[in-house]
Design a protein that fits this description.
This is Cytochrome b5 heme-binding domain-containing protein. With about 160 residues, the chain is of the alpha+beta class. The protein has 6 helices and 4 strands; from the N terminus they run αβαββαααβα.
Length: about 160
């Protein structure tokens, strides 16, 4: 094989390697969450884990709440699914992001840490978040961790300008 042939073989190998690397290293990008004020013009309600746990449907004077990706939804209309004793009641009154991504009803999966999820799981989560929760249930607030993350991103974006 002459030197041109060797160079071509190396170029082909490098191209294959780079192609595989880009496929492996590409991480699914979740849709952006826009923090919006309450429709009444009031600031958005911010929930802690402890506070959202009070909205489990056991008190009929309170709405039934659930958080996905840090966005808190009033799922009272879905009480047949999320209410006390219903099949998905474990998802209510908490941020169940990870559990939804994994299609899990196990207590250990009731959290919002997405770091161990695959691209396929992230994409599925995004689809459920956008096409089910955002379309069907009213947003009533945001989890504190989402507000903190959002604040850090704003600071980074405007660093040196503020």
């Amino acid at each position: 094989m002459d030197s041109t042939g060797k160079v071509m073989k190396w170029a082909e190998l490098i191209f294959v390697f780079l192609s595989l690397f880009s496929i492996i290293s590409t991480k699914y990008q979740l849709s952006t969450i826009e923090i919006r004020p309450d429709p009444s013009g009031e600031p958005a309600k911010i929930f802690t884990d402890e506070e959202i746990s009070k909205y489990d449907g056991s008190d009929s004077s309170k709405p039934l709440l659930m958080a996905v990706r840090g966005v808190v939804f009033d799922v009272s209309e879905g009480k047949d699914f999320y209410g006390q004793g219903a099949g998905y009641s474990i998802l209510a009154a908490k941020d169940a992001t990870y559990a939804l991504a994994k299609w899990s009803l196990e207590k250990k999966d009731m959290h919002h840490d997405l770091s161990s999820l695959s691209d396929h799981e992230l994409e599925g989560l995004d689809k459920v978040f956008l096409e089910t929760y955002m379309k069907k249930y009213p947003v009533v607030g945001y989890m504190d961790y989402l507000i903190e993350e959002h604040g850090k991103k704003v600071e980074e974006r405007f660093q040196g300008e503020l």
